[in-house]
DNA sequence: TGTTAAATTTCGGGA
DNA sequence: TCCCGAAGTTTAACA
């Protein structure tokens, strides 16, 4: 599990350690200690000297954590080059990528701990409650949106994006359905509006296209915007915002 | 720096370790080893048995990393309760929060390493290249958007959101400016459209309100959408997508 | 608390 | 590669 551990490594020792274990790409590498971090790319940042935790995963992704918060202080999702070297008597780590051109530089002023861990086995990961799952369910039970609704297509691509559900109502009118797994916002209304326009543009002039936003709830401003644009909202209440373990009850949507 | 380190801890030892160091809230705690993770909240997930790295920061935030990717496999940004206990002869960690109600459960089947680190000093952090900075710059140099433009306000709140820059052109017409630090998308066009409508609704009927999207570039579909809605695009090219160190040259925007 | 929008968003999918 | 959209997005700001 622990491939290698160094306490208070010298600059050249840390440099070798980093280059060795990042090259093999089979370890999760971490270094904790006093460091300085700078980033240049889509934006630019500088972190003054402080105690940070640097993580380098097997795919070469880099993240630098400060004492609080879920998000790293600095990061590099993918690195095209990851190299450590001794510079002015300290170990310096450079993580760069092209597209976008970005570079993160870590200067280890006083590394206290360097650790290489083997994190081999990762089991399966299963997520439920995604919008994709909601789409799957509603595509097979469109009456939950509206009685008589017939689904013609899913993920239909138009110039302005992908339409979640494309359908026809009991009067033969085309219906564009936009799904949200959580509370629908003005953003969702804009999306729906764009899709409705795109579909209208493909049909003979004068065709009526309905737009339905289907979600467990909707914000006040979104509702106003929606109604002013002649679009509709359908509450999908059986979508459990917090799936609760239940016994002897009938399973809700998505279970 | 290293407050405590355990190798292959027994369930009760790991439990004590976790409860002790998370209670004091002055350490970054990590556990690496075989585990199972499940989550219930806005969605639900299960991670089968595998080797993971669990990080618990001083603010009680929890993240569980698998071998690749910048994002944790599971996480809990804020925990209202963080408690470990021995359950069926293994150590189980529960991290829960209200609002939204969510819980992450980690079952440590075979912990190999438990580490408590002191990450005390964090230096200052400075980021440049944000949209806020772009706004600051353009508010003082609106001629970069258009000659004769006068800024009337920033972050002006209307019902549909916050207008980045509110201005008047050399002919006295009101101008709503939406800024993007990167390539502008259809989403940005929608925002701008909403703001223009909101402003029009506040002015006497028939008032002309211009909408300008100011960004370094714009996607093709966004440009079409923009033009079809009578809105305008202004390229802000001096926004350096990659701020480069230069010598003897005149500093660009934002430097 | 509710809503909106930014973010070095990341990530995945389709053309 | 470009583009769009989901995400357990997170985070901050503001009414």
CATH architecture of the largest domain in chain A: Distorted Sandwich
Relative helix content of chain A: 10-25%
Q: pLDDT average of chain A, as an integer?
A: 92
Largest interface: A-B, 76 and 76 residues
Q: Looking at CATH, which topology of the largest domain in chain A would you report?
A: Protein Yojf, Chain: A
Q: Round the Cα radius of gyration of chain A to an integer and report it.
A: 26 Å
Low-pLDDT residue spans of chain A: 240-255
Helix count of chain A?
A: 4
User: How many individual β-strands of chain A?
Assistant: 14
What is the string of helix and strand elements of chain A? EHEEEEEEEEHEEEHEHE
Structural class call of chain A reads: alpha+beta
Write the layout of secondary structure elements.
2 copies of one chain form a homodimer.
Chain A: E1 2-7, H1 11-24, E2 28-40, E3 44-56, E4 62-65, E5 74-76, E6 81-87, E7 90-97, E8 102-117, E9 125-128, H2 131-140, E10 150-158, E11 161-168, E12 174-179, H3 186-202, E13 209-215, H4 220-228, E14 232-235
Parallel strand pairs in A: 12-13, 13-14
Antiparallel strand pairs in A: 1-8, 2-3, 2-8, 3-4, 4-5, 6-7, 7-8, 10-11, 11-12
Helix pairs in contact in A: 3-4
The structure holds a DNA duplex (15 and 15 nucleotides).
């Amino acid at each position: 599990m622990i491939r290698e551990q160094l306490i208070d490594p010298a600059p050249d020792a840390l440099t070798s350690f980093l280059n060795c274990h990042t090259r093999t790409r089979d370890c999760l590498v971490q270094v904790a200690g006093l460091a300085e971090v700078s980033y240049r790319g889509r934006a630019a940042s500088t972190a003054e000297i402080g105690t940070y935790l640097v993580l380098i995963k097997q795919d070469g992704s880099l993240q630098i954590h400060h004492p609080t918060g879920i998000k790293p202080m600095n990061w590099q999702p993918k690195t095209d080059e990851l190299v450590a070297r001794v510079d002015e008597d300290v170990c310096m780590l450079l993580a760069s990528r092209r597209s976008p051109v970005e570079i993160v530089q870590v200067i280890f002023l006083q590394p206290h701990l360097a650790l290489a861990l083997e994190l081999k086995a990762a089991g399966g990961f299963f997520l439920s409650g995604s919008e994709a799952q909601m789409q799957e369910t509603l595509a097979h039970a469109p009456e939950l949106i509206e009685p008589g609704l017939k689904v013609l297509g899913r993920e239909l691509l138009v110039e302005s994006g992908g339409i979640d559900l494309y359908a026809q109502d009991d009067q033969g009118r085309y219906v564009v359905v936009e799904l949200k797994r959580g509370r629908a916002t003005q953003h969702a209304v804009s999306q729906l509006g764009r899709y409705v326009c795109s579909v209208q543009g493909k049909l003979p002039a004068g065709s009526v296209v309905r737009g339905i936003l289907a979600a467990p709830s909707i914000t006040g401003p979104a509702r106003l915007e929606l109604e002013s644009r002649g679009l509709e909202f359908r509450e999908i209440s059986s979508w459990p915002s917090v799936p609760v373990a239940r016994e002897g009850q009938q399973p809700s949507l998505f279970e």
